[in-house]
Each structure stands twice: as structure tokens, then as C-alpha cells.
Specification:
It is a single chain. The chain is mostly helical and 111 residues long. The protein has a domain at 43-111. Helix content is 59%, strand content 0%. It is built from six helices and no strands. The longest helix is centred in the middle third of the chain and has 26 residues, at 49-74. The protein is elongated, with a radius of gyration of 19 Å.
Amino acid sequence: MNPGVRRTVSEDGRYRTFWPRFGAAFVDSLVFMPVGWLDEWIWANVSTPPVLLAWYVVGSLSMVSYSIVLHGYCGQTLGKMATNVMVVGVVGSRLTYRLSSPTLTENRIPG
């Protein structure tokens, strides 16, 4: 490549991570399989509305919380750790809790 030509992001390979990210999502889904099994068991065997409501809230927030906490604390989920995928902020800085939460920042929403 000509040294005077600026390399684009896709040329240097930083964002060529489809397959590692796919693998990370697969590993993360394996992490949540027991939650899915527990969810099926609870909905099939529990009939008390307050318990079902509490479980609905916990089950609904579990994956989002997992992602926000691990991205904020480690910069990666367990799946991304297993596949060596790093998540960084817009300017390449380490991810913080504020940046890892889509409800607390505008930086994750394009436009």
C-alpha cells in the first residue's frame, strides 16, 4: 500500500470481527441457557401472580444487566472474553459504565 494513502478502518481490520462477535454471542447464549430452563420451569409450575411478576422482571432484566455490568466492569462479556473481542468507546477509550448503558448515553445511538 502507498505510504501516502490513508488507511480506512475496514482496511486495517479493526472492525472485521463478524465471526468472533458471532462466536461471542453464541457463548453468551450458552451462559444464559440455565436461565432459560429456569424460566420454563417457573412458568410451567408456579401459579402465584406476585411470584410470576417478580420472575418476569428479573428474567427480563437479566441479559441487559449482564451486558451492562460486564461491559462496564471488564469491557467485555464472558463470550467476548472467550473470543478475544474488545469493546471500546467511540474514541477508542476503555468502556465505562456510562458508555455501556444504552439508556445513559447518546454515544451509542447514531445520528
